[in-house]
Amino acid sequence: MEPPRRLRSPPRTRALPVAAATTPSASSAGSAAGRSRAPRCCPARDIRPGAPHHYLVVPIEHMGNCKTLKKEHIPLVEKMMEAGKNILQRNNFTDLNDIRMGFHWPPFCSISHLHLHVLAPASQLGFLSRMIYRTNSYWFITAEQLIERLQTENTAS
Ligand SMILES: [Zn+2]
């Protein structure tokens, strides 16, 4: 028996580390409000690539999911976005207007660890990917939308 043939093998999805911690924090109990605290991230691999370029940015610290994030996590989200753009550029993708970055909104997420999807080019997403990473849906939120949400949520309550 032969394994089913694929039309084409998609590129491996890679994740990248966000900036390494510059300040070693020995005790980090309680809130992570420390200004100098840089997010530490580790690589992970996505399950199925949704675009020619598809990467995951994952913080090392367990962050739960994007629903549990608070305003103090905005710098972390921004760092993750920055890292996402960096990995694209390092892989020779430079049109940063044609990318999609975002998070799966619980419970539509199979991974309980916070992870940012970085897909490019956004204009070349397949049908399924357009669904899975659909902007303005109730299962996917772009990084920009998430930041906006975190900002307004805190001032509202
Ligand atoms: Zn996901």
Give a structural overview.
The chain is α+β, with helices and mostly antiparallel strands and 157 residues long. The chain has a single domain (14-19, 40-60, 68-156), classed as HIT family, subunit A (2-Layer Sandwich). Helix content is 24%, strand content 13%. The chain contains three helices and five strands. Strands 1-2-4-3-5 form a five-stranded mixed sheet. Helix 1 runs antiparallel to helix 3. The structure holds zinc ion. Residues 104, 109, 111, 115, 117 line the site of zinc ion (ZN). Zinc ion (ZN) binds at residues 104, 109, 111, 115, 117.
Considering DSSP H and I runs of 4 or more, what fraction of the residues is helical? 10-25%
Task: Tell me the total number of β-strands.
Answer: 5
Estimate the strand proportion. Answer: 5-15%
Strands side by side in the biggest sheet: 1-2-4-3-5
Class of secondary structure makeup: alpha+beta
Discrete helix count:
3
- Succession of helices and strands: EEHEEHEH
- Total domain count: 1
Overall shape: globular
CATH superfamily: HIT-like
What compounds are bound to the protein?
Answer: zinc ion
Would you state the CATH class?
Alpha Beta
CATH topology: HIT family, subunit A
Query: Main beta sheet, described?
Result: 5 strands, mixed
Average the pLDDT over all residues and give the rounded result.
73
The CA-CA distance between the termini, in Å, is: 60 Å
Per CATH, the architecture is 2-Layer Sandwich
Low-confidence stretches: 4-12, 19-45
Radius of gyration from the CA trace? Answer: 16 Å
- The oligomeric state of the chains shown is single chain
